[in-house]
Amino acid sequence: VCESHGRDEGIDYGSGHPPDAVVFANSTEEVSELAKLCTQHRVPIVPYGTGTSLEGRSERLRAALTAVAGDSRRRTGANSAVKVGCTGHVAALHGGLCVDLSGMKDVLEVNAEDADCRVQAGVTRKQLNTHLRDTGLFFPVDPGADASLGGMAATRASGTNAVRYGTMRENVLGLTAVTSVPAF
């Protein structure tokens, strides 16, 4: 399971970076609890949707983050490695916990009158379009893969319809952000 959660559909098939463990989350509350525990124990977190990402290749990312970490250690005099999480890609460059969001597949609300909806991060674009079919609505962002909407938002996905309907940037009206810091 760790090996499959350490690679995506990019062309560098042999360059995966598996996490130390994988947890399959089913709710925002579970993700929030995991974030708190990982922060408490200083464990990096890597979110995982469907693994269809083609950008952010892990080898280039490793080189860039190693350079940044090295520069940071020189400035601060720190001896330990800087741990960096990477949103939207599956490279667990420093091990850590992979949080698989594929179980979060609920379409929470559809407002046909407002032409919007609320979904969980693991909903895929095909799943959403199937759900919307009878409303006369559709989700136009098509990156060419059956990606999860959470992953598409994290990578600002686009596709062949972007000129007419925009990218994820223009189609996402709000997000639920999970942090390890308690709300005020």
Overall morphology: globular
- In terms of quaternary structure, the protein is single chain
Mean pLDDT: 77
Name the helicity range. 25-40%
State the major sheet: 3 strands, parallel
Query: What is the number of beta strands?
Result: 5
Strand order of the largest sheet: 1-3-2
Class inferred from helices and paired strands: alpha/beta
Order of helices and strands: EHEHEEEHHHH
* Low-confidence runs: 56-88
Gap from first CA to last CA: 37 Å
Task: Lay out the secondary structure.
Blueprint (H helix, E strand, L loop, with lengths): L20 E4 L3 H13 L4 E4 L9 H19 L20 E4 L6 E5 L4 E4 L5 H8 L16 H6 L7 H4 L2 H4 L13
Parallel strand pairs: 1-3, 2-3
Antiparallel strand pairs: 4-5
Question: Please, could you describe this protein's structure?
Answer:
With 184 residues, the chain is α/β, with parallel strands linked by helices. It has 6 helices and 5 strands. Strands 1-3-2 form a 3-stranded parallel β-sheet, with helices on one face. Strands 4-5 form a two-stranded antiparallel ribbon. Helix 2 (58-76) links the parallel strand 2 (45-48) and strand 3. The chain is globular, with a radius of gyration of 18 Å. Residues 56-88 have low confidence and may be disordered.
